[in-house]
Write a structure and sequence with these properties.
The complex is a heterodimer of chains A (356) and B (989). With 356 residues, chain A is α/β, with parallel strands linked by helices. Chain A is built from 9 helices and 19 strands. Chain A has 2 domains: 230 residues, Purple Acid Phosphatase, chain A, domain 2 (4-Layer Sandwich); 114 residues, no CATH class. In chain A, the strands form 5 sheets. Chain A has a 6-stranded mixed β-sheet. Chain A has a 6-stranded mixed β-sheet with strand order 5-6-7-10-12-11, with no helix packed on it. In chain A, α3 links the parallel β3 and β4. Among the domains of chain B are: 169 residues; 114 residues, no CATH class; 118 residues. In chain B, the strands form 3 sheets. Chain B has a 6-stranded antiparallel β-sheet with strand order 2-1-4-5-6-7, with helices on one face. In chain B, strands 3-13-12-8 form a 4-stranded parallel β-sheet. In chain B, strands 9-10-11 form a 3-stranded antiparallel β-sheet. Classes of the chains: A alpha/beta (356), B alpha+beta (989).
Chain lengths: 356, 989
């Protein structure tokens, strides 16, 4: 039996990448497409069940169009059962309002629900404030069957509405604990019988979700479960640090960025974090740089974490207005990053340069 | 640095002007209008060139200082800097591009690139404006503030990058602008404000969309509940329908059974009925057709009825036949014969009628009488009448001729006019001829005179012929053209084009006048002829007199008839013409009168004759002869016709009487065998009676015969019927008689009933058989004793469920619609949230940016103030030093602010310089200026240009100032300009 484990699709959720509106929409659409491709993959591989371990929809943002797309995709794979576990952000109840859900879309609730496929049992439960302590005791599994359990929450040793208390799930004859909530793939041992696994999300939505994203492909044979992470995301996000110390011109910075991102696909989303130091003479035209970079990647942004390097000796005795200004600002109680900016503004203003 | 010399090629009003500067004090003592200010501007221009031109002359130094006399616009300036002599050579064009700058190292006598064309900035580290404000003290220039960015910067010794310093105000403005673009200093404009508006709007929309979630949830719950309820109802409906089916099945089984039993009962019942009937017919039962025949027979027998009794009419017939038997034994004429005699009688009637009408009508009779009376005097013959008619025609002709004998109307009128014309008297023809001759004589005499004059003129005209010809031709041409123009003028006037009309008329008249003029001149020119001889003159005079006398006579004659201005000749000619006309018409009138008289005589004669002839007839005297004759003629023909008619009528009557007699004889012969003597007047009646009686007799005879036969026939039929009945009775063991129809009817009914029963029984049996066969299984099945609810109850329940289901569906549809509407709104939440997030972030960023910009402005300003404060002290010290030296006293109550604005304390209050006299202001300004220079330049000590700065000083102050000047010149190179000897420092001891 073949099973796919995925989670945290977060359809229609906000992109945390500061994408322009049109591109954010594109990404949301790509997410839907990736899901559809995953289902096609499943059909091709004769997968029987797709485990969806929560946070498929964003409660506040789900659109009717997305819900229809999802349901249609499920409908078009009638031979696959979709195990739909709602998560803490899930809004599927609203999403499916007024829509007829297909037969192969299986739901869970706040009590353990079991689905059997020959000698494979898939159990799932949705945690809430009322059951997060007691629910673990109600789980009934036998060692004769291959048992897969679905839950959504943060791995923890404590009980909590949003926690998956791992110790409470040990020795329950769980062979595979399919979890959702964490957006990166992670697989660890649960107990002697089984493992717990976060499939991660299908597509990164912010630069805190850099790296490969996809789903877990499970192959059950007799009592053995062989799992494999399949990177499946349409695009990958990268956070690339670039040291701009000793770089003074836009061109130099651009070249440095290009070097740092030479291995990255053009289809990627890249955040360049500028580090190091800069001087007053440094050309920090990030708008222009961003424009250049967006021609080279699907999306690029720049985060400036560089610091202004001022040699105090140069300005300590400089009785020019510039010198007086820098001294005054440095002597103030402002935050360092604010001081840098203020000094930058002042110097650019005095130089007649544009203030961005 | 020090100025050494200058040479002005052309600059303003200065041309080819050279000056060598004193290292200490250079005094330029020139009159007003010399160009002192121009000189100062030249010096400035040498160091700084010209700034960007302003529109006004005042601000456009390039234009202002354009050489009045033309030539090279520029010059050179030699100065010393750090021990080296340099020469600046500048020329200026109309635009900066045309300017030239060259720097020479005088010592090395070659070009130097130590300084660029911005040499002023490089040397003094001040922009041109700052330079002017610091080193140049004009005569009357109002200095609003000594301070400028450059000066402040210089004062703080800030010049490292001139652009930065000089852009301080711009920098500040740029920061403020940037800040304002984010958050306006006043109002709510700016990107933050815009973002806030957007955020507020998005919040509102988001709230609106999110506020629908509860409704969405409620709706979902309701829909779920409805769906559940729908499921329940569907399930209940299904079971109800099943129950309905069961109930219907049970009812159906019972119904079947009942139907089966009913069918069986029916068959049995029919069978019993049939049996009862057949009991009465032990051997056989007659068939229906036999019974029908029998009954038909009864009907026929009944129709035949009893032996008929003779009616009264039939009795009368019998009697009639008996009475007329003898008469009609000899034979009854046929219809054709009757018809023949009838026609004969009809003809007789018409003959009689025609006989009665063979006479004139009353009118005709009356007319004939009248005519006889008319012609009682004798009937005229046709020839006589013709004669009268001829006379009448002749009379008519004469009368016509008489009416034609008159002048034509126009001749009559003309004759009248001529009579009026010749009222003075009709001249004789000879008189007229004589007058004509006289006139001709006069003409001859004049012609003779003319010939004499012509002979004189001929010689003149031989010379003046061409001119005369010319003039004549010209006058003719002008005359013709003038006429044409006049004609055109009239034409246009007629066309109401008064403008053209007037023009042409005026032109035409002018041309005519011109033509007349030429003609006159031509005639006048005749004055220049040779003199006529006396003899000739005498001849001419005599001829003239004679001609005049002749003309006078003619004139006298003519004047009695015509008095207009025409010539005698024409008048006489007219008289003559009229005379001829008059004579002609007069003669014609007389002739006509004579003819008229003759005709009248003839007419009278004819009239008398006709009157005499026609008077014997009683005719209307007012009629014309023609009408009388017509009447006579008409009367004659009428009378003739009437007489002819009378004769014809008589002949016809005779013939008719003969025909009537023949008819009478024939009819009488026909009627005589049957009827005794019949008068002719009764023939028709009798014939008609005869015809009728014959027909009646025949008819009656036929009826009697017919009745006899009927009776016999009836008896025969009845006998046959009885025979049949006997046979029937024998066969079916009954006794029917022809008189007992009811029994036959009863039997018939029984037979019918039996047949019906038989048929019904067959049908019932068949129906039972079919029913049994069709419902064999159901009938074989036992009847269930399971209780099911009544069908009505179940139907009602089903209806309730269906109604509820329909309502639920309707509600679901409504909910779905509402759901769609809500989802349309909630679908926008994600984009609204993204938008909101984006705007909020932007707003925060902009607020942060604005804060940082505020800080930047604050710190920049603070830095500038700090810088200012750092030099204020030294300026104050220098200023007081100079004030003391100038005024000879300590000025303790002097305040200088950061902008270098000066205030002095007077009478307990700090007063701006504006409140002080011009002299005091100048003192202060000079001291400030020098203090500023000290502060600005420190040890560098640049030159200072003073353009008669002491003009407002009193004598004492002037002296002091001049002394100060001399002292300062030890430290500074001073260029002092004045136009007043009292202020010439070198003259002051």
């Amino acid at each position: 039996m073949k099973i796919i484990h995925c989670s945290d699709l977060h359809f229609d959720s906000k992109m945390e990448t500061n994408l322009p509106f049109r591109k954010a929409q594109e990404r949301n659409n790509e997410l839907l497409t990736t899901f559809s491709k995953m289902v096609s993959f499943a059909m091709e591989k004769e997968v029987e069940v797709i485990l969806m371990a929560g946070d498929i929809f964003d409660a506040q943002r789900i659109t009717s169009k997305t819900a229809d797309y999802f349901l249609d995709t499920v409908r078009e794979a009638p031979d696959i059962d979709f195990m739909f576990l709602r998560g803490n952000h899930d809004g599927s109840r609203r999403a499916f309002a007024g829509k007829k859900t297909p037969e192969n879309l299986k739901f869970f609730n706040d009590e353990w629900t079991y689905y059997s496929y020959d000698n494979v049992v898939i159990a799932g439960v949705e945690l809430n404030r009322d059951n997060y302590r007691s629910i673990y005791d109600d789980l009934q599994l036998t060692p004769e069957t291959t048992n897969i359990v679905m839950m959504h929450g943060q791995e923890s040793t404590q009980f909590g509405e949003n926690n998956v208390c791992l110790p409470a799930l040990q020795s329950k004859h769980i062979h595979y604990l399919a979890l959702g909530h964490i957006h990166s793939y992670k697989k660890e041992k649960l107990d002697t019988e089984g493992v717990y696994c976060y499939s991660g999300c299908l597509e990164g939505r912010g630069f805190d979700e850099c790296g490969e994203k996809g789903f877990v492909f499970l192959h059950l044979k007799e009592h053995r479960i062989k799992s494999e992470f399949i990177p499946f995301a349409r695009r990958t996000l990268y956070d690339i640090p670039v040291d701009i110390t000793s770089l003074t011109t836009v061109n130099q910075m651009h070249r440095a960025m290009k070097r740092a991102s030479s291995d990255i696909s053009k289809e990627s989303l890249v955040k360049f974090t500028l580090t190091g130091s800069y001087t007053l003479e440094t050309q920090k035209d990030f708008r222009f740089l961003t424009q250049l970079l967006n021609d080279e990647f699907y999306f690029a942004k720049i985060k400036d974490e560089s610091q202004l390097a001022l040699e105090k000796e140069t300005y300590e005795h400089d009785i020019s207005l510039k010198g007086e200004f820098i001294r005054t600002v440095l002597a103030s109680e402002l935050k360092d990053e604010d001081k840098d900016i203020i000094i930058g503004y002042g110097i650019r203003a005095l130089s007649g340069e544009e203030i961005e | 640095m020090r100025l050494i010399s200058l040479k002005i090629e052309n600059f303003g009003n200065l041309s080819d002007y050279s000056l060598v500067f004193d290292p200490a004090l250079t005094v330029i003592y020139e009159e007003n209008g010399f160009g002192k200010t121009t000189l100062a501007e030249f010096i400035r221009a040498m160091f700084y060139g010209f700034e960007r031109a302003g529109r006004s002359l005042d601000k456009n130094s390039r234009k202002k200082n354009l050489p009045w006399q033309g030539g090279t616009y520029g010059g050179n300036l030699v100065f010393e800097y750090e021990g080296t002599m340099y020469r600046i050579e500048r020329t200026f064009g109309s635009i900066p591009r045309q300017d030239s700058f060259r720097l020479y190292n005088v010592d090395k006598n070659k070009r130097s690139n130590r300084f660029s064309e911005n040499i002023g900035l490089e040397l003094f580290e001040l922009d041109a404006d700052s330079f002017e404000r610091s080193t140049y003290l004009p005569q009357t220039r109002i200095i609003d503030s000594l301070s400028s960015s450059g000066i402040q910067a210089k004062l703080g010794d800030l010049v490292q990058d001139t652009n930065d310093i000089n852009n301080f105000d711009k920098a500040l403005q740029a920061l403020r602008n940037k800040r304002s673009s984010l958050i306006a200093f006043r109002g709510s404009s700016g990107s933050v404000g815009e973002a806030q508006k957007k955020i507020t709007y998005l919040h509102q929309r988001l709230e609106e969309a999110q506020s629908l979630f509860p409704e969405l949830d409620v709706l979902q719950k309701e829909m779920d509940a409805l769906e559940n309820r729908k499921e329940e109802i569907l399930s209940a409906l299904t079971s109800t329908r099943e129950e309905i089916t069961l109930s219907a099945e049970a009812a159906s089984r019972r119904t079947l059974e009942a139907q089966y039993q009913a069918l069986r009962s029916r068959v049995e019942k029919l069978n019993e009925q049939q049996r009862k009937i057949l009991e009465a017919y032990p051997f056989a039962m007659p068939s229906e057709s036999e019974m029908d025949e029998l009954l038909a027979m009864y009907d026929k027998a009944a129709q035949l009825g009893d032996a008929p009794q003779m009616t009264e009419a039939e009795q009368e017939e019998e009697a009639f036949v008996g009475e007329n038997k003898e008469r009609f034994e000899q034979g009854i004429p046929d219809e054709e014969t009757f018809e023949y005699f009838q026609n004969l009688l009809n003809r007789r009637i018409s003959l009689v009628s025609s006989l009665e009408h063979a006479d004139l009508s009353d009118n005709e009779k009356k007319k004939l009488e009248e005519l006889n009376a008319f012609y009682s005097g004798g009937v005229p013959q046709e020839e006589v009448i013709d004669t009268w008619e001829a006379k009448e025609d002749e009379l008519k002709i004469h009368k016509n001729r008489l009416s034609d004998l008159a002048l034509a109307p126009e001749e009559e009128i003309q004759l009248q006019h001529l009579k009026i014309f010749f009222a003075p008297g009709i001249p004789e023809r000879d008189d007229l001829s004589q007058k004509q001759r006289k006139l001709e004589q006069a003409k001859e005499l004049r012609l003779q005179n003319l010939k004499i004059a012509a002979a004189v003129e001929e010689s003149f005209e031989e010379q003046a012929a061409p001119a005369k010809d010319k003039k004549a031709a010209l006058s003719i041409a002008l005359f013709i053209i003038g006429l044409i123009f006049l004609g055109a003028g009239v034409f246009f006037f007629v066309r109401q084009n008064f403008l053209f009309g007037g023009g042409f008329l005026a032109s035409g008249l002018a041309l005519l006048i011109l033509a007349a003029y030429f003609r006159l001149t031509q005639m006048i020119s005749r004055g220049d002829r040779r003199a006529i001889s006396s003899q000739e003159r005498q001849i001419i005079r005599k001829s003239e007199e004679e001609a005049a006398a002749l003309e006078k006579d003619v004139l006298h004659f003519v004047a009695s008839y015509i008095s207009d201005e025409r010539s005698l000749s024409s008048k006489l000619s007219e008289i003559e013409t009229k005379y001829n006309q008059y004579m002609y018409l007069n003669k014609k009138e007389k002739q006509l009168e004579e003819q008229g008289r003759l005709l009248e005589n003839n007419i009278k004669e004819l009239t008398n004759v006709l009157q005499a002839e026609l008077s014997r007839f009683p005719l209307d005297k007012n009629l014309s002869f023609h009408d009388m004759l017509v009447e006579i003629h008409t009367g004659l023909s009428q009378m003739s016709e009437l007489n002819k008619k009378v004769k014809e009528l008589e002949e016809t009557a005779e013939k008719t009487r003969a025909d009537i007699a023949v008819v009478d004889e024939e009819v009488s012969a026909f009627l005589q065998p049957y009827y005794e003597l019949v008068e002719p007047k009764d023939f028709a009646v009798q014939l008609s009676l005869f015809r009728k009686e014959s027909a009646d007799y025949l008819r009656a005879k036929d009826n009697i015969e017919r009745r006899k036969k009927q009776k016999e026939k009836r008896e025969e039929i009845l006998s046959q019927y009885r025979q049949k009945l006997h046979i029937f009775s024998e066969t079916y063991s009954c006794s029917l008689s022809l008189e007992d129809r009811q029994e036959a009817l009863r039997m018939r009914d029984e037979v019918k009933e039996s047949a019906i029963l038989k048929k019904n029984m067959q049908e019932a049996k068949q129906e039972l058989e079919e029913f049994s066969k069709k419902h064999e299984k159901e009938l074989a099945a036992p009847i269930s004793d399971v209780h099911v609810r009544g069908l009505d109850e179940l139907k009602k329940e089903e209806e309730r469920f269906v109604t509820e289901l329909s309502q639920i569906n309707e509600t679901l549809v409504h909910h779905h619609q509402r759901l769609r509407v809500i989802q349309e709104q909630t679908d926008t939440i994600s984009s609204l949230q993204d938008d909101l997030s984006e705007w909020s972030e932007k707003r925060q960023e902009d607020i942060k940016k604005a804060e940082l910009l505020d800080q930047t402005i604050h710190y920049l300003q603070e830095s500038k103030d700090a810088l200012s404060r750092s030099y204020l002290g030294s300026i104050y010290q220098s200023f007081t030093k100079y004030m003391k030296r100038l005024m000879g006293e300590e000025e303790e109550n002097i305040f200088i602010d950061q902008d270098l604005d000066v205030q002095m304390e007077r009478r307990g209050a700090a007063r701006d310089l504006a409140y002080f006299s011009a002299g005091q202001t100048d003192i202060v300004m000079i001291c400030m200026r020098f203090a500023l220079v000290d502060a600005l330049f420190g040890d560098k000590k640049p030159f200072v240009i003073l353009d008669d700065p002491f003009i407002n000083f009193d004598d004492d102050n002037t002296k002091r100032a001049l002394r100060l000047l001399k002292e300062l010149s030890k430290e500074h190179q001073i260029i002092y300009m004045t136009c007043n000897s009292s202020r010439e420092p070198l003259l002051d001891n």
